[in-house]
Amino acid sequence: MSDIFLQKLWRWCLFCCFRPESQHHSPAAMEYWLISAPGEKTCQQTWESLQNVTAKQGDLSTNWKFHIPDLKVGTLDLLVGLSEDLGKLDSFVEQVMKKVSNYLGDVLEDQRDKLSENLLANGVDLATYITRFQWDMAKYPTKQSLKNISDIISKQVSQIESDLKIKSNTYNNLKSNLQNIERKQTGSLLTRNVGDLVKKEQFVHNSEYLTTLLVVVPKMHYQDWHNKYERLTDMIVPRSTQLVFEDNDHGLFTVSLFKKVVDEFKQKARENRFVVRDFTYNEEELAAGNNEYFKLASEKKKQLGPLVRWLKVNFGETFTAWIHIKALRVFVESVLRYGLPVNFQAMLLHPQKKNHKRLREVLNQQYAHLDSTASSGDKHDVMDMPGLGFGTGEYYPYVYFKINIDMVERI
């Protein structure tokens, strides 16, 4: 298979198989366009031409050179396959990166509004990192093949995803157990833990015959309770009821009686819309319950700091890996699109507010000569290979990838 044929085949694939990127509803200020164009007489001239054309049309964008090192090209047929693999890897890494970002927001809880200032890459904000992008030679040696570099990134991010799953499950279980205890300490008297509402002296202790029950009574039935409780069964201790706590809807009363009539009393109470809580005063159990709460609260606090640090570090790791994938994709697509020897200029554009459409038109005009099918509109004419039934799709005469650095999930 000749190199020329592969280049032509690749051009057909770009026209026929390209699918537009999904629409983002993030602020436009977070959107950057990563493009490349072949070197004119020099790559510097290509850069200056872009600067001139965007400035001449009314400062349509702020532009930066995007530095990609000399990478090993390999054969064109391998590049075709790698192009598809990099597209999948791009989506995967972006997905993991946003999982880390979203979970960091969840962990920050009431400080979630500070999420964006915690999302850094190599110690700087995301915009600074991409506009001053430098290839990380230590992590991704350029002596390695493109496939090996993509494998390094894939393994790195897969490990982060695996670690995230373990760490989030551990922290979520701890948080859930703590929330369950907190719910039992609040809410309605019908369901909440009442152990922290009562005192030892409100109960009969160490009696062979007597016991003390806790009864929840609706506020509107307080008088009814006082009128009836002594007569619900025999063997009720007279004037033994005491209001120990009340919320908006109910009161919690004690009543002392003989143990032998407890079951009968519960039934009669239920018939009169009084609810007997299943509770036995036990100082050791109450202390254990309090200890469990403080233990979980202390463990959550202990885990929070290291977890936040891990999430911040690994967000940075996934973000930088993601931008390196973008660099790989630009390199591969540029070689496939413009051919060998490697001679193109990668450029990062930050479209100015409300100028996206005009910038696209200007870029299409500027680079229309790169392909005979190019037109000045957003969507170009699409060629169709007879008999293959390929659909139509959006296409630009220059290599283009969108980078959206808005990582804050909006509800």
From TrEMBL:
Sum up the protein's function in the record's words.
Subunit of the V1 complex of vacuolar(H+)-ATPase (V-ATPase), a multisubunit enzyme composed of a peripheral complex (V1) that hydrolyzes ATP and a membrane integral complex (V0) that translocates protons. V-ATPase is responsible for acidifying and maintaining the pH of intracellular compartments and in some cell types, is targeted to the plasma membrane, where it is responsible for acidifying the extracellular environment. Subunit C is necessary for the assembly of the catalytic sector of the enzyme and is likely to have a specific function in its catalytic activity.
The entry's protein name is V-type proton ATPase subunit C
Q: Which UniProt keywords apply?
A: Hydrogen ion transport, Ion transport, Transport
Transport: present as a keyword of the record?
yes
Q: Say yes or no: keyword Transferase present.
A: no
Q: State the organism's lineage.
A: Eukaryota, Metazoa, Ecdysozoa, Arthropoda, Crustacea
An example Gene Ontology molecular-function term = proton-transporting ATPase activity, rotational mechanism
Task: Please indicate which superkingdom the organism of origin belongs to.
Answer: Eukaryota
Species this protein is from: Amphibalanus amphitrite
One cellular component term from this protein's GO annotations in UniProt: lysosomal membrane
What does UniProt give as the signal peptide span? none
The UniProt family comment states: Belongs to the V-ATPase C subunit family.
Subunit annotation: V-ATPase is a heteromultimeric enzyme made up of two complexes: the ATP-hydrolytic V1 complex and the proton translocation V0 complex. The V1 complex consists of three catalytic AB heterodimers that form a heterohexamer, three peripheral stalks each consisting of EG heterodimers, one central rotor including subunits D and F, and the regulatory subunits C and H. The proton translocation complex V0 consists of the proton transport subunit a, a ring of proteolipid subunits c9c'', rotary subunit d, subunits e and f, and two accessory subunits.
Q: Which CDD domains match?
A: V-ATPase_C
The record, for PANTHER family, names:
V-TYPE PROTON ATPASE SUBUNIT C
InterPro entries from the entry?
A: ATPase_V1-cplx_csu, Vac_ATP_synth_c_sf
